[in-house]
């Protein structure tokens, strides 16, 4: 994972649904979390040469992927993928080309906004924020009930997951130049490499809902796929001036 926080998430008490539904309370949903950098070190330590390996199909379940999942790694990517799906699920029509290249919410600007017209719904207003220093004005607008957005995406790391704490280090210090290069690589793959660019085209995810989760937003889907916010502000230590 690019995110070091996933190590803590895997240890959360509610991440034990596999045991509860499988009749074995000691089972965890996730056994271990490796960061991208740790995985790279593991591959090197085992002497694995990826370039010499023969191509094979991914394991199932969840071996199929779409570029809608890939762009999650860039700031604005979660929003863009969601809009592609929302348009289809609401209109029952394929997303127009413009929604496959939603430039207003791409890039490294701290706060980005866009408005998307969806037939039968009207204008859907969205906002994208990355870097917690940029979150305050958006949160203040929400608190004051002055927020015009229907959907807000927050990412803690500058640039999104491509700038996560577990990502490979570069010879250059962390900079927008490095972040933008990683983002460009993701969107290049989205546009030119992946045959499927929308989340709802993933047949294995569709089968998962049909055979087990029942449907999006079902009680079981909420129980297994959602966590809840826990206020830990009392654990913070106030920094005193020297």
* Rounded Rg: 20 Å
Q: Count every beta strand, where a strand is a DSSP E run of 2 or more residues.
A: 3
Shape: globular
Strand content: 5-15%
Percent of residues in helical segments?
25-40%
Order of helices and strands: HHHHHEEHEHHH
Low-confidence region ranges: none
Please give the alpha-carbon distance between the first and last residues: 37 Å
Strand order of the largest sheet: 1-2-3
Class from helix and strand fractions: alpha+beta
Q: How confident overall, as mean pLDDT?
A: 90
Largest sheet: 3 strands, mixed
Summed up, the helix count is 9
Describe this structure in words.
This protein has a domain of 50 residues. The model has no long low-confidence stretch (mean pLDDT 90). With 242 residues, the chain is of the alpha+beta class. Strands 1-2-3 form a three-stranded mixed β-sheet, covered by helices on one side. The chain has nine helices and three strands, in the order αααααββαβααα. It comes from Desulforamulus profundi. This is Iron hydrogenase small subunit domain-containing protein.
Summarize the structure.
Helix content is about 35%, strand content about 10%.
Summary tags:
alpha+beta; three-stranded mixed beta sheet; 242 residues
What is the fold's blueprint, element by element?
Layout lengths: L4 H6 L6 H6 L13 H10 L21 H4 L6 H15 L19 E8 L3 E9 L4 H9 L7 E5 L20 H17 L10 H11 L5 H7 L17
């Amino acid at each position: 994972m690019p995110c070091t926080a996933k190590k803590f998430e895997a240890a959360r008490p509610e991440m034990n649904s596999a045991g509860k539904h499988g009749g074995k309370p000691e089972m965890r949903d996730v056994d271990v979390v490796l960061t991208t950098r740790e995985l790279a070190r593991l591959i090197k330590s085992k002497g694995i040469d990826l370039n010499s390996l023969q191509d094979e199909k991914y394991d199932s379940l969840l071996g199929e992927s779409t570029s809608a999942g890939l762009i999650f790694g860039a700031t604005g990517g979660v929003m863009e993928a969601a809009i592609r799906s929302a348009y289809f699920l609401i209109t029952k029509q394929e997303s127009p080309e413009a929604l496959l290249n939603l430039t207003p919410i791409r890039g490294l600007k701290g706060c980005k906004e866009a408005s998307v017209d969806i037939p039968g719904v009207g204008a859907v207003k969205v906002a994208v924020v990355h870097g917690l220093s940029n979150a305050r004005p958006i949160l203040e607008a929400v608190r004051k009930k002055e927020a015009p957005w229907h959907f807000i995406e927050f990412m803690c790391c500058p640039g999104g997951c491509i700038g996560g704490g577990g990502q490979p280090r570069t010879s250059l210090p962390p900079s927008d130049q490095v972040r933008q290069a990683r983002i460009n690589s993701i969107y290049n793959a989205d546009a030119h490499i992946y045959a499927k660019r929308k989340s709802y085209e993933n047949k294995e995810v569709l089968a998962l809902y049909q055979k087990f989760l029942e449907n999006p937003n079902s009680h079981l889907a909420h129980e297994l796929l959602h966590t809840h916010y826990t206020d830990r502000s009392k654990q913070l230590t106030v920094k005193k001036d020297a």
